[in-house]
Amino acid sequence: MTNTFYSLTWTDVFASLVLVLVSIALLKWWKIGLEKTLLIGTLRTFVQLTAMGYVLTYFFAQRRWYFMVGLVALMILIASYEGYRRQRSRVRIPRYFAIITGVLFVTVAAVLGTVLQFILHVQPWYYPYAMIPIAGMIIGNALNTASLTVNRFVGELEHRESEIELYLSLGAPPRVAVQDALRESIKAALLPTVNSMMMVGLVQLPGVMTGQILSGIDPIIAVRYQIMIMYMWVTASTMTNILVLALVYRQFFTPRQQLRRELLHHR
Amino acid sequence: MSAPALFDLEHVGYDPVLRDLSLRIFPGEHWVIMGPSGAGKSTCLRLFNGLLSPTGGRLTFHGSPLETMDPPVLRQKVGMLFQEAVMLQGTVEENLCLPLRWRPDSARYTRRRIIDYLHLVELDASLLGVPARTLSGGEKQRVALARILLNDPEVLLLDEPTASLDPPLARKILRLVHRLQREFKLTVIRVSHHPELARDFADHVCFIQAGRILEAGPISRLDQPVAPDLREFLEQSRS
Ligand SMILES: Nc1ncnc2c1ncn2[C@@H]1O[C@H](COP(=O)(O)OP(=O)(O)O)[C@@H](O)[C@H]1O
Ligand SMILES: [Mg+2]
Questions:
Q1: What does the pLDDT read at residue A1?
Q2: B192-218 in b/e burial notation, b at 16+ Cβ within 10 A?
Q3: Distance of CA A246 to CAs A251, A260, B187, Å?
Q4: What's the rounded mean pLDDT across residues A232-257?
Q5: Cα-to-centroid distance, B17 and ligand 1 (Å)
Q6: CB-CB under 8 Å, B98 with A171
Q7: Cβ–Cβ of A170/B71 closer than 8 Å?
Q8: Closest-CA residue in chain A for B145?
Q9: Which of A78, A212, B105, B228 would disulfide-bridge A217, Cβ 3.0–4.6 Å?
Q10: Nearest chain B Cα to A256, which residue?
């Protein structure tokens, strides 16, 4: 048996629209009222990914390090804005956009640098076929986990306000006063990633691996990549969570180590 | 020359809640801060231990401006008992030893000393292993008091600690506070919107309304109130 590489044409992609039509029909039948949103999502998936494909083709053709770094920087900025928008609670965190942007830059530089240099030994280091998709995975995962952890942290602050003031009133530094809130938030945000490490391969094959196998790559090689990706994810998540919260919690205290209650009560 | 004031407030303000507070509190006094709900009493109390900083005026402790002091040091010396005694997840012992989480000081938290302080607040040593959140309101207040006293404070701030307790129990806690005050030579600053209980053991009174001091001085001021608002406040609550 030889490996067959099933290439997908645009016609094939349009054929896959039938799948979406089925779900739209189902939603309409039960009068759920989500059809319009799903339709928009379907269109955006198509438009965004197609655009991304052309952008990538263009950038990949450039073979200049600053093009790749620029693209990664752009991805980080878009992700930060998305993360900023997702901070839905009534509590406004001062300097939040700057914090996630900064943290994403640091995390991506550290994790991406390690992966390209010491694990994949990519030559040259900005080789786009490695750098861009890996950067995308790190950023996407870091962003999701940062949103989770920050939203949870703000919730914990609201609900532990009197506990935090108790700590402060006994002479505790702010870091100790929020320790329980920090721990709960980081645990909650990391749990999905850790759980996916427990379950991976048992029920469902991860998307990346599926894609590789579909395009004809030996499953053992695909598996090696997937293992590395999982390890990379959990590291990026942990780093992001800790760095983001280290900066976010400080926003809720004054230099005189007072809880800024007015932020929580949005007067 | 008089003895130095413990707290000296000169035209202290906290925008927009408190305005132009001037007050001198001397060591060993027992002040009760009275006033209607929303007057700014809790805000005022928070200024004393640096949970809030004044936005205007001058506030000193032992003669030095509060903003020059290290907040944790100030807060150890000026303990605060909140309206609802906050108990953390864990046993009574863990709650009493809370400061060990940031100030490893095993000499201060020996078993012997913890039990002594539990006895001081009239609780039994058998409570040590009990989950603190299962205690009654009165017991929680006592544990919270012991927790503050283990810090060796000079001042005790009490923000309506008895508001959620029934009057006989509230009196008991106030009597306990009074005993502890004499035993540890504490200065007490207590907030109360309950004129009946307010007088108990207090020697000074400060009446605040809408963020301003309308009356401040010896507790006997309550007998012949000058400020019409204070007179009204006392009459209203008597009926
Ligand atoms: N930081 C703040 N900014 C504006 N208003 C505040 C602030 N803190 C408290 N307040 C308001 O000030 C008033 C006094 O509050 P508080 O000191 O708790 O009153 P009391 O303890 O006398 O009932 C309340 O109306 C409260 O909502
Ligand atoms: Mg109050």
A1: 46
A2: bbbbebbbbbbebbbbbbebbbbbbee
A3: 9, 16, 38
A4: 96
A5: 6
A6: no
A7: no
A8: A170
A9: A212
A10: B71
What is the token pair recorded at A52?
């991304």
Secondary element (H or E) of residue B25? strand B18-25
User: Cβ of B102 and A172 within 8 Å?
Assistant: yes
Does the C-beta of B40 come closer than 6 Å to ligand 1? yes
Pocket test residue of B14, B15, B17, B47 for ligand 1, highest count of atoms within 8 A of CB: B17
Q: For the segment B35-47, what is each residue's pLDDT rounded down to a tens digit?
A: 999 999 999 999 9
Cβ–Cβ under 8 Å, residues B30 and B204: yes
pLDDT tens sequence across B180-224: 999 999 999 999 877 777 788 999 999 999 999 999 999 998 888
Q: What is the pTM of this model?
A: 0.90
Sign of the four-CA dihedral A104, A237, A60, A40: negative
Of residues B80, B88, B101, nearest to A169 (C-beta): B80
Q: Give the alpha-carbon dihedral of A25, A31, A37, A42, to 10 degrees.
A: -10
Here the ipTM equals 0.95
Residues of chain B contacting residue A163, judged by C-beta atoms under 8 Å apart: 86, 88
Q: Which residue matches tokens 């027992």?
A: B30
Model pLDDT for residues B98-107, shown as the tens digit of each residue? 999 999 888 8
